[in-house]
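Query structure, 97 tokens:
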């Protein structure tokens, strides 16, 4: 059981390190408020969604507003606001396709 616990602990440390690396490269890296694991993954997914949309030929009004918010405010918004806002944009994009 000790080896299994050590493997699981090592796996969790690796996962946590990977999530921390992801948090630091997101455009809204906050040193004061750390995003939860799920918030980090959702923000990353939705940021990728907005970037993909830009590469496919232009941003929707909602995605452009999201990207502008990230760039103009220096991410002074509450990170949870950004996660929720990006969730909203991704849902709009899915329904419009």
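Result returned for the query:
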């Amino acid at each position: 059981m000790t080896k299994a616990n050590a493997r699981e602990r090592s796996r969790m440390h690796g996962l946590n390190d990977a999530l921390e690396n992801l948090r630091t490269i997101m455009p809204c890296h906050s040193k004061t408020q750390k995003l939860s694991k799920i918030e980090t993954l959702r923000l990353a997914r939705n940021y990728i969604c907005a970037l993909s949309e830009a590469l496919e030929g232009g941003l929707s009004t909602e995605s452009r507003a999201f990207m502008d918010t990230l760039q103009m405010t220096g991410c002074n918004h509450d990170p949870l606001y950004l996660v929720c806002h990006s969730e909203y944009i991704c849902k709009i994009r899915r329904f419009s396709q």
